[in-house]
Amino acid sequence: MAQKAVVLLSGGLDSTTVLAQAQADGYQVYALSFDYGQRHDSELDAAKKIAERAGVTEHKIIPMNLRTIGGSALTDADLAVPEEESEGIPVTYVPARNTVFLSIALGWAEVVDADAIFIGVSAVDYSGYPDCRPEYIAAFEKMANLATKRGVEGRSVRILTPLIDLTKADTVRLGLSLGVDYSATVSCYQANSQGEACGVCDSCRLRIKGFAGAELADPTRYVP
Amino acid sequence: MAQKAVVLLSGGLDSTTVLAQAQADGYQVYALSFDYGQRHDSELDAAKKIAERAGVTEHKIIPMNLRTIGGSALTDADLAVPEEESEGIPVTYVPARNTVFLSIALGWAEVVDADAIFIGVSAVDYSGYPDCRPEYIAAFEKMANLATKRGVEGRSVRILTPLIDLTKADTVRLGLSLGVDYSATVSCYQANSQGEACGVCDSCRLRIKGFAGAELADPTRYVP
User: Across residues A134-149, what is the average pLDDT?
Assistant: First the structure.
């Protein structure tokens, strides 16, 4: 029987590539997305379409309103999304977001008896978020195996980050080699209701740089 | 200015005692409860009453439906709550519950710039849940300080567990010394809509043992 994995799927470029990698590695995939008060719904629509096309075993979308906590430009309508690079940790950082998402993934992993959780973080072309670094992932994995029944029984769960050492261009190349169709993915922090990307936010800038670096065409529709 | 703490408040005996301890330690309290598909609402009603009486700075109740994940007798109506002691990790264990709750507390702690998160776990009179052990708490704290902006800036957040080495009887004694009114607390896993406790589930048995051990009267209303 195939090993099972929970894959965190935002509907963006990175998580879509990770989903393809998990399937290429032979995992039976349980995709997990969050409705966390994002500025737009096109990201979730993308996640649904991608999970369906990939033929995952199950796709759950968990309502998780991080707006009630606030503190980020991604969930707080009063904070503007910056359109140029800044020093340090940017205002688009959502406090403890990856920790919350990985924790819920951990709960589901325990219920379906999954051996791994995949998350599309990268410590190379990233936005300076502390919860994208390998030392954070290692600490989460250690904690996870002390937290759960599986861990206590000595059947550890692994947190797998196939993109951790990849540039955005490497990720795009990897995805295309795995047959990923990037036209369905949404990266923009403030895409409009037609799913058109702004082209200027941090996430758009990283995506554009990725396709340019890989010398490939970006199928994203940007606002004219 | 007083230090701030996020306190996980279920409305039960332990978390109510912890809230009183945090206030006695001089913390300004941000109480956090979850509406996670418990079998009954009286626990949340208790939490509201307790937070209000304690005069906390803010009390948030986060909708967090763990029923969508399943796997526990506390959130899955098809699994029976056991009425006698069992070996190992019981079916009332909610997969990764403390990890999910502490993660969201971590996000809020970062937003309000809190120095500590209080959780009422005990490794003595407990139900055998892996996420109540000191090694788990230490691993979570380590991960938390790698996950957040505060941690990266060297201003660490502490996970405080004042009940970790206490028996249930010790906890009751501590609470009474801090002036806790236990009549508002609800421990039972299957209290009825009048807030009456069953008296036979694991949590009721631990509570009864606690009051008996402390040689004190339990103000809980049990079903006749």
Answer: 95
CB-based contact, B130 to chain A, within 8 Å: yes
The CATH number given to A4-168 is 3.40.50.620
Class of domain B4-213: alpha beta
ipTM computed for the complex: 0.85
Nearest chain B Cα distance for residue A177, angstroms: 32
CA dist list (Å): B95 to A77, A119, B130, B166 = 33, 19, 10, 24
DSSP state of A93: P
Indicate the burial class of A222 (C-beta count within 10 angstroms; 0-12, 13-18, 19 or more): middle
- In A, which residues are within 8 Å of B63 by CB distance? 63, 65
A30: Cα separation from own chain's centroid = 14
Q: Which of A68, A71, A133 sits opposite B110 (nearest CB)?
A: A71
A70 touches chain B (CB under 8 A): yes
Q: Which residues of A83-94 are buried (b: 16+ CB within 10 A; e: fewer)?
A: eeeeeeebebbb
Distance of CA A82 to the CA centre of its chain: 20
Token duo for residue B185: 């607390």
B219 burial class (0-12, 13-18, 19+ CB within 10 angstroms)?
exposed
Distance CA B103, CA B72 (A): 20
Identify the closest residue of chain A to B131 by CA–CA distance. Answer: A147
Q: How far is CA B181 from the centre of its chain?
A: 16
- Stretches in chain B below the pLDDT threshold 70: 1, 37-40, 65-94, 125-127
Q: Do A136 and B147 touch (CB under 8 A)?
A: yes
Cβ distance A148 to B131 less than 8 Å, yes or no, reads yes
pLDDT, position B83: 56
Residue A107 to residue B152, Cβ atoms within 8 A: no
Structure tokens at A42: 């096109």
Q: Is the CB of A136 less than 8 angstroms away from the CB of B130?
A: no
pLDDT class of A19 with cuts at 50, 70, 90? very high
Q: State CA B82 to chain mean position distance.
A: 20
Give yes or no for A86 touching B (CB within 8 A): no
**Nearest CB neighbour to B63, from listed A65, A94, A130:** A65
